[in-house]
């Protein structure tokens, strides 16, 4: 097709159609009972907002009045008609007749007068003058349905045919045709007929003789607008009483409306349920008379004295009261009261302040300072005794727990907190609790606690974390496998930012715990194939290695799965808070004590630990002068193992005895006043040593 003028005529025609078809009705709502369906998919019903264009097209969406937009076929809907009765069919056919008639004729004022109905000589007649009364009908089709306006029974036959065959889509089946008839009085007669289904039925709807219509559709609803003079409002008020109150009800003021609302609310809310505490936590969480309360509400039964439904759950089967419950009201009111509900007022701290029970503590901070526990008469301690059946010492057979309070006075020092023997040697035995520090990736010191136990393997308490997974005990130590910057991720950590804080350390060895030694990525602890996620589910799970995850993945107090060695830590501050104390400044300063006189006793005795308050955090402590002689590292002068073994030679302070072997000294059990324990720092395998490894703590 040629395009003259350089323009796209197709686009212009489309735009013209858009511009000439504005939206005339907006915000209409289609319900399930309205039977609106998509034109493109007649089986899909539409429920929601819709609008109507000037050409009659119905589209989904609220729409904006007066605008033009392109008609999207996927968004066009229509009303599917079903005929419940023959009367519905008659009414729909009548509507189509009127639509076709008005779309095909432009009527003058005289035409309208000739088609309207008036009462003349006591009867209804078609055609009237300006001076004659106009007859209005409830519906134009009322006259159309009268057989007087139709030729015979054809209209009724047409409606019956459509009804019997349930013909829903009537668009395109009707057309209007005009045919000339015989002249009457020298005037041309034209008949107007509605043609249905290509001539199946033809119905005469109007006849025009000359310029006047006879036997026409009733158009009494059409009226011509008359113009007149504008009324002078001021002059009208002089003769008219515009204050008419008789037709208006009494209008309450706003306060009366509010008063009435609360009166109604009090009458409809119903009595308060009786709430009870079921679990003894002093919280009323259950309605004792729930059934009686529910049955008194409108959602249970629409009684004359029913109350507003209380709970949302009680309105689930009642569509009339959904969103109209007391719970719905409460939720809505909450949105109005954030400034009240979210206002945090000062709360008086009524917790008691913790009072220190002692004024000092035992301080071990110099290298080679320690407390040594030794069995009386060189006998074995209880945990050292061997089970004759298993040939295992008690600490490996039954396990053990070490607890202590520790305060660290710097960020860098490392050392032994508790040891028995040397578990790190290849042929060694025993266990050791130690503190270590390392530098992380940000160059910060990180302090962590490690428990090492030697049974069949060298075990410790490290757990898994991201990128630093748990290592089997049969493989190399994590301290030789991972970089130093990651050490603190493997072990329980103690902060280094507060050097005044005390920490309670609980180290446990439990031989009954099942500890995985070979990590099969696809096998769980029971040997079942679980896929490739097992390694990441357990090997990197800290709580699993702390014995808190069972074989089902549930969190429990003790699963007996994970690591045999475990260390848990709590700060003094957190412990006091957990016990309900107020924690502020609870530090004490241990006073200097002069014990040079024989008449004065020390403030506490190391043999009576109950006199020492483990929850004391002094801010300052005195520096003790150690009387412990360091372990000599060289043989006495003149030593010759071939000629002069010098067995029995004592150190200058007589705290060490030479045993005749190179670099071998033995602690001397010297009895001091007030203490029955020996003073020594070199710990044989049968001695428990507190703090013998040095370090500032």
Topology:
Elements: H1 9-19, E1 23-30, E2 36-38, E3 48-53, E4 58-60, E5 76-79, H2 86-104, H3 109-115, E6 117-120, E7 123-126, H4 141-144, H5 154-164, E8 174-184, E9 187-196, E10 201-209, E11 212-214, H6 233-239, H7 254-269, E12 275-276, E13 286-287, H8 290-295, H9 326-334, H10 338-341, E14 371-373, E15 386-387, E16 392-393, H11 394-397, E17 400-406, E18 415-421, E19 430-439, E20 445-454, E21 458-460, H12 478-481, H13 487-490, E22 493-494, E23 503-509, H14 534-539, H15 542-545, E24 565-571, H16 572-578, E25 656-658, E26 665-667, E27 688-690
Antiparallel strand pairs: 1-3, 2-5, 3-4, 4-5, 6-7, 8-9, 9-10, 10-11, 12-13, 14-27, 15-16, 17-23, 18-19, 18-27, 19-20, 20-21, 20-22, 23-24, 25-26
Poorly predicted sequence stretches spanning 5 or more consecutive residues? 1-17, 144-151, 592-626, 670-687, 692-696
Give the CA-based shape. Answer: elongated
The SS-based structural class is alpha+beta
**What is the CA-atom radius of gyration, in angstroms?**
51 Å
Outline the biggest β-sheet. 7 strands, antiparallel
| Alpha-carbon distance between the two ends | 99 Å
């Amino acid at each position: 097709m040629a395009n003259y003028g350089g323009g796209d005529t197709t686009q212009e025609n489309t735009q013209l159609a858009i511009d000439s078809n504005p939206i005339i009705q907006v915000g209409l709502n289609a319900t399930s009972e309205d039977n609106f369906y998509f034109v493109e998919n007649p089986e899909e019903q539409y429920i929601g907002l819709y609008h109507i264009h000037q050409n009659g097209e119905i589209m989904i969406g609220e729409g904006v009045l007066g605008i033009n937009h392109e008609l999207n076929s996927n968004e066009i809907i229509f009303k599917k008609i079903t005929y419940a009765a023959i009367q519905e069919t008659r009414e729909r056919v009548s509507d189509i007749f009127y639509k076709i008639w008005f779309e095909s004729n432009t009527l003058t004022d005289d035409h309208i007068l000739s088609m309207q109905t008036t009462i003349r000589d006591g009867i209804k007649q078609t055609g009237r003058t300006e001076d004659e009364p106009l007859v209005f009908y409830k519906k134009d089709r009322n006259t159309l349905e009268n057989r007087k306006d139709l030729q015979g029974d054809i209209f009724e036959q047409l409606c019956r045919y459509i009804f019997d065959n349930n013909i829903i889509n009537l668009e395109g089946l009707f057309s209007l045709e005009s045919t000339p008839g015989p002249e009457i009085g020298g005037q041309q007669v034209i008949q107007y007929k509605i043609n249905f289904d290509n001539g199946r039925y033809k119905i005469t709807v109007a006849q025009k003789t000359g310029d006047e219509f006879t036997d026409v559709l009733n158009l009494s609803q059409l009226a011509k607008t008359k113009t007149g003079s504008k009324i002078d409002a001021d002059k009208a008020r002089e003769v008219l009483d515009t204050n008419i109150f008789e037709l208006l009800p009494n209008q309450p003021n706003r306060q009366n409306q509010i008063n009435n609302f609360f009166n109604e609310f009090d009458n409809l809310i119903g009595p308060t349920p009786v709430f009870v505490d079921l679990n003894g936590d002093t919280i009323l969480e259950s309605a004792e008379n729930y059934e009686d309360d529910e049955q008194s509400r409108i959602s249970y039964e629409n009684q004359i004295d029913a109350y507003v439904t209380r709970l949302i759950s009680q309105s689930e089967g009642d569509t009339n009261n959904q969103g109209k419950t007391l719970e719905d009201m409460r939720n809505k009111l909450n949105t109005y009261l954030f400034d009240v509900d979210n206002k945090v007022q000062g709360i008086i701290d009524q917790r008691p302040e913790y009072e220190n029970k002692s004024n000092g503590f035992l301080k071990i901070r110099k290298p080679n300072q320690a407390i040594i526990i030794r069995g009386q008469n060189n006998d074995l301690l209880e945990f050292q005794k061997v089970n004759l059946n298993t040939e295992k010492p008690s600490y490996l057979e039954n396990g053990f727990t070490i607890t202590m309070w520790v305060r660290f006075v710097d960020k860098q020092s490392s050392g032994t907190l508790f040891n028995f023997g040397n578990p790190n040697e290849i042929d060694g035995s025993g266990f050791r609790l130690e503190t270590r520090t390392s530098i992380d990736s940000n160059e910060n010191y990180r302090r962590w606690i490690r428990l090492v136990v030697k049974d069949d393997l060298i075990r410790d308490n490290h757990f898994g974390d991201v990128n630093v997974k748990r290592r089997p005990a049969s493989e190399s130590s994590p301290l030789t496998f991972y970089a130093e910057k990651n050490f603190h991720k493997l072990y329980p950590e103690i902060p280094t930012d507060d050097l005044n804080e005390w920490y309670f350390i609980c180290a446990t060895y439990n031989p009954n715990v099942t500890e995985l030694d070979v990590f099969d990525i696809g096998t769980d602890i029971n040997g079942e194939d679980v896929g490739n996620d097992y390694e990441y589910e357990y090997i990197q799970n800290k709580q699993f290695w702390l014995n808190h995850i069972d074989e089902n993945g549930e969190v429990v107090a003790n699963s007996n799965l994970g690591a045999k060695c475990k260390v848990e830590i709590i700060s003094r501050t957190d412990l006091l808070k957990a016990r309900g104390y107020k924690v502020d400044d609870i530090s004490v300063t241990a006073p200097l004590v002069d014990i040079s006189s024989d008449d004065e006793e020390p403030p506490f005795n190391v043999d009576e630990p109950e006199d020492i308050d483990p929850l004391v955090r002094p801010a300052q402590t005195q520096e003790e002068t150690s009387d412990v002689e360091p372990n000599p590292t060289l043989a006495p002068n003149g030593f010759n193992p071939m000629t002069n073994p010098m067995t029995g030679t004592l150190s200058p302070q007589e705290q060490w005895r030479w045993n005749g072997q190179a670099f071998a000294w033995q602690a001397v059990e010297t009895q001091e006043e007030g203490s029955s324990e020996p003073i020594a720092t070199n710990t044989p395998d049968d001695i428990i040593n507190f703090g013998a490894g040095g370090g500032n703590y």
